[in-house]
Amino acid sequence: MFPVAFLRERTSNVYRSQGGATFSKTICDCFGGTMKRDSLFRIPNYPAWFGADTFLLAGSAVHWIVMSVMAYELSGSVTMAGWFATIRGIMSSTTQVLGGTFIDRHDHRTLILVQAGSCAIIWLTMGILFIAGDLTFALFVSLCLLSSSIFGFLGGTTNAALIRVVGPKRYAEAESVNQGRDAAVNTAGSPLGAVLFGMSHAFPFFASAVFDVMAFVSAAFLRLPLNEDERDEAASSEPASFVRDMIDGWRWVFSSKVIVSGVAIMGVVQFGFFAAHQSVNLTLVEQGVEPLLISLANVGTAVGTIVGSFISARICNNMPVGKGIVAILMGIAVSYVPMALIGTYPSILFSTCLASLPMPLFSALVNGFVFSKTPVSKQGRTRAAVMTAIMLFGSLSGAVAGELLPRIGFSGFVFVLVALSLAGAMFAALNPYLRTIPAASEWENVEL
Length: 448
What we know:
With 448 residues, the chain is mostly helical. Helix content is 79%, strand content 0%.
């Protein structure tokens, strides 16, 4: 699922006793949280990390919906606007492959600051050029491709740094929170961007610049210690060539049967989720459903994800991963049955909401285990490899939905997704590398 995109110095006693506590309270208050004894926000550096990651995501969400419209208005061509979106995706995916290695070789805090600062400058420049009447299609494309390159190359930095912030034991819980946060920000970002765009085409880009500046400020408070083993490993890797580091990281990823099995099951879930989303949108459009109702179906999915994240945060640490994966895939299969049998708008809304509920738990279990067990020095490369593979599965969903819907109809296609989820559950149940993964409390005793 829009896999931000977003530390290595010792934490000073001053930060821990004064600055860290003040900043924690400020960030927590901004997001409506309360400082509970077991809250993630009581972990030093987590509020700063959460602020940086959230504001970077908000900066992308607020202008995302208007990019294609701007491309069309500046070029006057639907074809050019379509190719613009495709090229941006290719650029982001390509740079992500290289970025994982770069992230592992450099200071995370510095990279977050570079990403936030450079993106703020890009969006501020674009807004000023538009107001001045000097924003041509060529300039627009150039600035957008530069932004996509930075996002792909450095966007995984915050995710790579998360393990340093919360530690392995609370990584699954943090992943659950991220899932709900992502859904909330993306759901709010699109309408906010549309409203700002209606006021002035430059406003969404100015808003993105403001969010990126806020991410920069949050990242400035971020401090992470290195233990001696990690410090020695980081120092020893510096002289190595970039290409050798990249090959070493990818070889390590694909030598792990657990990671390969995890990528396969994540690919099944990602494909099914996006294929269901595509088929619902295409079917509702074909049925002449009002655009507002179509958007409500998408909002329903986001609401299900947000509710699911709260549930996941409370149970993910105590659920065995292997059994959880099987149960979740079977639950997704059952969730699709009402809209497959009935096919009406209410049944579609019900099924999509229900199917989205376990998605945060699935992500917390699988991503939580994989990345909590991945060495800190390989976080960037592992995430780049995993996300690139999953994106390949997700990118096929639109084409498959477009080809099969006219041939077997909406109900037939949804039953294909039901069968796919059941097959995934069987794969997880029969796969010894997935089936035997225990709950988070026992991860430290299990090898990746």
